[in-house]
């Protein structure tokens, strides 16, 4: 089951913050251990609105729920704006240069950079890691936040039991 629903900016911030916290603590484990996840999360929520790009679209949440008895692999997220062809965006390619630049900056300064710089790396990594193929185990749910233009449609290509399927066009209700 795939559900797309419009959400508030606050709920979008919650989804971003949870993904960024997980990635931040993976990338900067020592800092996370020293300061505690609660403090890091407070800092993320304080700083994150400043580093997110300006809102030009609606915030929507996609919920993937595997209600079957076998795993499902989500292969691709296809989307189109009105009167366009279906397309797939590859964030890992799109943001590779930015990730490399941020990693180099952080490493060359031995981690002695502003929190905002580290958060920007964690946020970009979270975006690329959560915007690709993934597997849902039976009963598992995944929530993902995206920007969505009015009138846009999405389709999910997925594999189950060795067969590939594509959902009908999904529209924001």
List the helices and strands and how they pair.
Blueprint lengths: L1 E5 L2 H19 L1 H7 L1 H15 L6 E8 L6 E9 L10 H4 L1 H13 L6 H15 L4 E3 L4 E8 L4 E8 L2 E4 L3 E2 L2
Structure characterization notes:
The protein has 6 helices and 8 strands. It has helices spanning 9-27, 29-35, 37-51, 91-94, 96-108, 115-129, and strands at 2-6, 58-65, 72-80, 134-136, 141-148, 153-160, 163-166, 170-171. The strands form 2 sheets. Strands 3, 4, 6, 7 and 8 form a 5-stranded antiparallel β-sheet that branches. Helix 1 (9-27) crosses helix 2.
Query: Unreliable segments (pLDDT under 50, ≥5 consecutive)?
Result: none
- Report the biggest beta sheet as strand number plus sense, adding barrel if it closes: 5 strands, antiparallel
Briefly note the structural class of the backbone.
alpha+beta
- What sort of overall outline do the alpha carbons produce when their principal axes are compared? globular
Count of discrete alpha- or pi-helical segments spanning 4 or more residues: 6
Could you state the order of secondary-structure elements as H and E?
A: EHHHEEHHHEEEEE
Q: How far apart are the termini? A: 15 Å
> How helical, in percent, are the residues?
40-55%
The counted number of beta strands is 8
Strand fraction: 25-35%
Mean pLDDT: 88
Backbone CA Rg: 17 Å
What characteristics describe this protein?
173 residues; 3-stranded antiparallel sheet; 6 helices; 42% helix
Compact overview of the structure:
With 173 residues, the chain is α+β, with helices and mostly antiparallel strands. The protein contains six helices and eight strands, in the order βαααββαααβββββ. The longest helix is centred in the N-terminal third of the chain and has 19 residues.
């Amino acid at each position: 089951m795939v559900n797309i629903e419009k959400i508030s900016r606050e709920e979008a911030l919650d989804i971003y913050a949870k993904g960024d916290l997980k990635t931040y603590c993976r990338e900067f484990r020592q800092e996370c251990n020293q300061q505690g996840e609660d403090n890091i999360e407070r800092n993320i929520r304080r700083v994150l609105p400043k580093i997110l790009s300006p809102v030009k679209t609606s915030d929507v949440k996609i919920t993937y729920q595997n209600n079957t008895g076998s795993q499902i692999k989500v292969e691709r997220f296809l989307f189109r704006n009105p009167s366009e062809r279906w397309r797939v965006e590859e964030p890992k390619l799109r943001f590779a240069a930015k990730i490399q630049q941020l990693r180099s900056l952080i490493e060359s300064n031995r981690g002695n950079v502003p929190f905002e710089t580290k958060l920007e790396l964690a946020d970009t990594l979270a975006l690329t890691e959560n915007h690709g193929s993934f597997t849902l185990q039976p009963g598992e749910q995944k929530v993902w936040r995206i920007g969505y233009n009015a009138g846009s449609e999405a389709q999910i290509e997925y594999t189950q039991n060795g067969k590939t399927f594509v959902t009908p066009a999904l529209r924001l209700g």
